[in-house]
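Hey,
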Amino acid sequence: SDKKIFTQKQVEELKSGQEYENCVFDKLKLKGKELQECIFKQCSFENCNLVNTKFNGALFSGCNLTNANIAGCNFFSANFEKSKLMGLSFSEANSLIGVTFVKCNFDFADLRGVDLSGQDLSDCSFNETDLSLANLERTIFLNSHIANVKLNEAKLLLTDFRGAELQGFNLKTSNLKGAVFTPQQLEMLAGEIGIQVLGGNN
């Protein structure tokens, strides 16, 4: 169906509890809006100013939020499904309590110090993502693509990387203590620091 391209003036009409489909809000200011419990389907918020916007309980399905400014945003109990969250500074968001992410793209996003403990982040993409100081305890990364991420001082107790595609892990700066890997992944990680894993001689 046709996309509805919003103007800055039309942004005033947006309100909580509504459903918006195929809408384009690129580069607009939605600053401080109350958009709680909204359903956004295939909407684009690229380079949008979402500072202090309240998205409590909102659903984002198939949306593109690339490089939006989400400083002070409230995403309490929001759901993101199959959405592009590239370059977002979640470390500057106000509340991520109860938020869920399904099959999302976090490439180049800033998740420094964010609490993602116990989250199921299966089938997500983390390319050049900053997860420094993040709480990833019991977080599941099944079938996720994880490349060149920063994990400095991240909490990785029982973090489950099994089934994830891992590239460019810097084992010198990442403390992987407590994380869970498959033997094949360990071979790959060992290769990153020049160690060979060989079977014992029979």
